[in-house]
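Exercise 7.
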Amino acid sequence: MILRSVALRDFRSYDAAEFSFSEGVNIVCGDNGRGKTNLLEGIWLMTGVRSWRASKKGEAVRWEREKSILKADVFSEGREKQLTLELPAAGRSQAWVNGIKKKTAELSDSLRCVLFSPEDLMLIKGSAAGRRDFLDTAIAQMRPRYGELSGRYGRLLEQKSRLLKQQDPPPSAELIAAFDAQLASIGAAMIGYRARFCRGLDEESRKIHSAISGGKEELRAVYQTVKTVTDPFAPAEEIEHQLLDHLESHRTAELQSGACLSGLHKDELYLEVNGRAARAYASQGQTRSAALALKFAQREMYFRDSGEYPVLLLDDVLSELDAPRQAFVSGHAMGGQSIITCCEERTEFSGARLIRL
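Solution. The predicted structure, written as tokens, is:
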């Protein structure tokens, strides 16, 4: 999978700009405020997933403009493709592949990326919500249907939350039960996707973390969902019944508290280093190694799925790593295509294309 070029119009700080890339390592170099991260965000949005920098895609539209238009020329699945994404300041995004209109989520069939930014170091020490976002975004690129399910689940959960907060008149148990039935149906499918992805992520991240640590440490990544789901790999019908039981057992408490107390929005990607909870006990070095392992494991998962490496986006992350971890990134970024932003020119990437902003 190769990103040949990208064009940005009325996007963030860009009025109109075009960039072309080599098939190997590309270094985007420039002072702060020159638009390096904006460029990576534009590329990232071309995969059909939401930005890591904004809650709404429309926030990326250039000030006082009606819409942004992003275009990318990509070589994937053995053929050339042109992707177009239109981001309105308000309303739904629209997408085209080779002039044929597609769902935005379907862009990931043509372009996949793995992004590593300094904020991702919080994956290890941060909240469970950040790790859920990591899972949801990673799976949505591999399986666009998962992105649709996740969006539907989120909207239903938001509607249920509003109902539970309603006091005059309060919602009936029957109405909440109707929402729970839909959440259980969608949630059962989501759990299957999450469980299968986390199993592969655990296998790949263990190998990568061991390589980073010289075989001295072991990383484990374990998916945890509601306790009534005894086997997340079970048929969806069985999981749906278990989710319904779980939601029914919390219904009275939810009606009394006016809040959604349990469900998939509480799931966790539990991380351990040498048998201890990484969030509580990982050192600074272990935290960086674990974050690197998760991101490069995601990259290997995409390769296992499609036979093509995704485009690796590294947003000013090298300055956050010590020399051994920088060396690991340098060595592994050479396989496939990488686009790396930094404030100063890097010399460790032989043959890299330099793009100055």
